Amino acid sequence: MSDDEAKEEKELDLTSHDVVTKYKLSAEIANKALQIVLSECKPKAKVVDLCEKGDSYIREQTGNVYKNAKKKIEKGVAFPTCLSVNSTVCHFSPLAGDETVLEENDIVKIDLGCHIDGFISAVAHTHVVQEGPVTGRAADVIAAANTAAEVALRLVKPGKKNKDVTEAIQKVAAAYDCKIAEGVLSHQMKQFVIDGNKVILGASNPETRVDDAEFEENEVYAIDIVTTTGEGKLKLLDEKETTIYKRAVDKNYHLKMKASRLIFSEINQKFPIMPFTARALEDKRARLGLVECVNHELLQPYPVLHEKPDKITGHPLQELNPTQAIDDPEIKAWLALGTKSKKKGGGKKKKGKKDALENSADDTGNGAVSMDTSQG
């Protein structure tokens, strides 16, 4: 390895000003895309149109940066825009012909991501399609997600462990008489890696186990919070709803069908690493080809998951009037913690995603990075 290559590899974390700049820029674009989608969440708005607005904005804005870089820089959508309504919890990003529309009082979970040179900023938010403050159990579940996200933001720091966050967010949810959804993982992220090996388990249960891990300086995490008024057991109801996939780069197989080979070739050219939506594929036979690719594990599907109907899942910016209040002294102590680490040198820390919604991302000292993708 040459000296230049060794230097480049060494700098691909938050000790590099260039890396921090790319995180900040991708965060600004992602947050603006979220705001655009939020502004269009009105009764009778088509879900697929809102998803395309978010993706189109990210593609447009990333296309305008680093145009004159000496080396080509990959950039664009890191996770397709999803709008999951009511008991649908995540990953709903329908194909062009879908006629699903929003209705008054729908609870909408928005989820999207942007990357610059593989440095990913993902955001998520829950919005109720109504005027005025959110009340009742809808307010409880959204406040639970919001408070859990604030606590996680303060506990993802060097020296703390993943199980500390798991225990804390479960305690917060219980304070609002809600639950953290089972099977939801928060992943460490690295350059071009949206789901790293170090993870935080949302809700501990015998069926889902993760390795114990300690947070270290200059790490980046996507904190994914899903709260619910139901049992917290998410289900796949219809595989045909799945439209988001990611190339499994460690898998190989000689596809038998011509349609599969054509679509897989397009995926390798356009989406070799990041998750994508089938809506973005040009080949109209995509659905047929995708089935064989998934069956032979060339693609990792992101299934659309559901809670039981009439159960509420949620994360906010709207005014909330929950029925529960936080009285637990330990939760209050967590919330009183600062979100910034003390400076220990030239390193950088990017602010959490939820904070970036209001202030954009800013730099602080060295530390584990909490990038809040809380959602319902």
Question: What does the secondary structure layout of this molecule look like, with pairings?
Answer:
Blueprint lengths: L2 H8 L6 H23 L7 H16 L12 E11 L2 E3 L16 E10 L2 E10 L5 E2 H20 L6 H14 L3 E2 L4 E5 L9 E3 L18 E4 L3 E2 L6 E2 L7 E4 L10 H13 L5 E2 L8 H10 L3 E4 L2 E2 L13 E2 L7 H8 L12 E2 L2 H7 L3 E2 L4 E4 L4
Parallel strand pairs: 5-16, 9-19
Antiparallel strand pairs: 1-3, 2-15, 3-4, 6-10, 7-8, 7-9, 11-15, 12-13, 12-14, 17-18
How can the largest sheet be summarized? Answer: 4 strands, mixed
Number of distinct beta strands? 19
Strand-pairing-aware structural class: alpha+beta
> What proportion of the residues is helical, as a percent range?
25-40%
- Rg over CA atoms: 20 Å
Mean pLDDT: 86
Shape: globular
Spatial strand sequence of the major β-sheet: 8-7-9-19
What is the H-and-E element order? HHHEEEEEHHEEEEEEEHEHEEEHEHEE
Q: Estimate the strand proportion.
A: 15-25%
